[in-house]
């Protein structure tokens, strides 16, 4: 997979600029659970996901996690290189949810290219705006949607990602994604089980009634 596949404005870059991107990109393999970027003081660089899944999340003062977005094949992670943008820093952590393959473009190289190329700078701003939209959407979900609806939506999303109705995921991990305590997740899952929506077994959740989950998630 070539770096050109990540940039729809690739043909607007000069051959020299294209070679700078290709020449500076570092290929990296990461194992499931590995932390790739941690905090605003860490400036890893621009991440281009070749394969696998990444999760970006923030931590509360008491150590509680909440996912702000997830990244898949052909996605670009810009917040891991926020240090290259003046007055913009994000205290986020990025970890691999699965074994993943990445290209990493050092922030100083990418910043130099943005200063040279207006199309690249504009595209980078579009990515940043998209991420901000995702964060605002997340805030709205937390503030205005009840936890049962958020949990139903998460189970549907996870089922689609994993392509199975039997999810191998712990209640604690779900809590980390949704910014909630494990006990709250467990209580709601037991309610779903009582209603015949899911079946709980040790280490897994089986979705029994997708339609009910969809109705609940979209209410």
Topology:
Layout: H1 15-24, E1 26-30, E2 35-38, E3 46-51, E4 54-59, E5 65-71, E6 76-77, E7 93-96, E8 100-105, H2 107-116, H3 118-144, H4 147-162, E9 166-167, H5 171-178, H6 182-194, E10 198-201, E11 204-207, H7 210-217
Antiparallel strand pairs: 1-8, 2-7, 3-6, 3-8, 4-5, 4-7, 9-11, 10-11
Explain this structure:
By secondary structure, this protein is an alpha+beta fold. The chain is built from 7 helices and 11 strands. It has helices at 15-24, 107-116, 118-144, 147-162, 171-178, 182-194, 210-217, and strands at residues 26-30, 35-38, 46-51, 54-59, 65-71, 76-77, 93-96, 100-105, 166-167, 198-201, 204-207. The strands form 3 sheets. Strands 1-8-3-6 form a 4-stranded antiparallel beta sheet. It has a 4-stranded antiparallel beta sheet with strand order 2-7-4-5. Strands 9-11-10 form a 3-stranded antiparallel beta sheet. β4 (54-59) and β5 form a beta hairpin.
């Amino acid at each position: 997979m070539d770096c050109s596949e990540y940039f729809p404005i690739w043909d607007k870059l000069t051959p020299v600029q294209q070679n700078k991107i290709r020449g500076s990109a570092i290929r990296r393999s990461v194992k499931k659970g590995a932390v790739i970027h941690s905090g605003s003081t860490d400036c890893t660089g621009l991440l281009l996901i070749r394969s696998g899944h990444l999760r970006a999340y923030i931590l509360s003062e008491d150590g509680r996690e909440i996912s702000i977005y997830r990244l898949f094949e052909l996605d670009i992670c810009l917040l891991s290189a926020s240090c290259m943008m003046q007055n913009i820093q994000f205290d986020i952590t990025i970890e691999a949810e699965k074994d993943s393959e990445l290209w990493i473009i050092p922030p100083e190289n990418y910043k130099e290219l943005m200063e040279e190329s207006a199309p690249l700078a504009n595209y980078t701003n579009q990515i940043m705006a998209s991420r901000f939209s995702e964060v605002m959407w997340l805030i709205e979900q937390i503030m205005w949607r009840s936890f049962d609806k958020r949990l139903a939506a998460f189970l549907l999303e996870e089922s689609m990602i994993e392509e199975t109705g039997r999810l191998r995921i712990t209640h604690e991990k779900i809590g980390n994604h949704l910014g909630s305590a494990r006990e709250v997740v467990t209580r709601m899952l037991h309610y779903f089980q009582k209603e015949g929506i899911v079946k709980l077994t040790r280490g897994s959740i089986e979705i029994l009634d997708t339609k009910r989950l969809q109705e609940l998630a979209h209410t």
